[in-house]
From TrEMBL:
Keyword DNA-binding annotated: yes
Keywords, in A-Z order: DNA-binding
Gene Ontology molecular functions: DNA binding; DNA-binding transcription factor activity
PANTHER family: HTH-TYPE TRANSCRIPTIONAL REGULATOR, METHYLPHOSPHONATE SYNTHASE
Pfam family of the protein (one): HTH_3
SUPFAM superfamilies: lambda repressor-like DNA-binding domains
Residues annotated as domain HTH cro/C1-type: 12-66
Protein's name in the database: Helix-turn-helix transcriptional regulator
Recorded superkingdom: Bacteria
Gene3D superfamilies named in the record: lambda repressor-like DNA-binding domains
One cellular-component annotation, GO: cytosol
Length: 73
């Protein structure tokens, strides 16, 4: 695994927690299913580029910043 795939779940969870949001809230903002958010955060699902962009937009960060945070910790 590379840094992106290893760290993406925890970065998404950390950004969500920083905003004080539930998985449900993030799911609503990203127009995704809450259970899918849980799978992503547990590393059980790998989001497509389109889904990663939806998550980044919902979390109010640029996709490039989200990816950089995953790669560089």
């Amino acid at each position: 695994m590379n840094g992106l795939s290893e760290r993406f779940p925890s970065v998404v969870r950390q950004l969500r927690h920083e905003r004080g949001w539930s998985q449900e809230r993030l799911a609503e903002r990203a127009n995704l299913n809450r259970s899918f958010i849980g799978e992503i955060e547990r590393g059980l699902a790998s989001p497509s580029l389109v889904t990663a962009d939806k998550l980044a937009r919902a979390l109010e960060v640029d996709l490039s910043a989200l990816v950089a945070r995953c790669e560089h910790g």
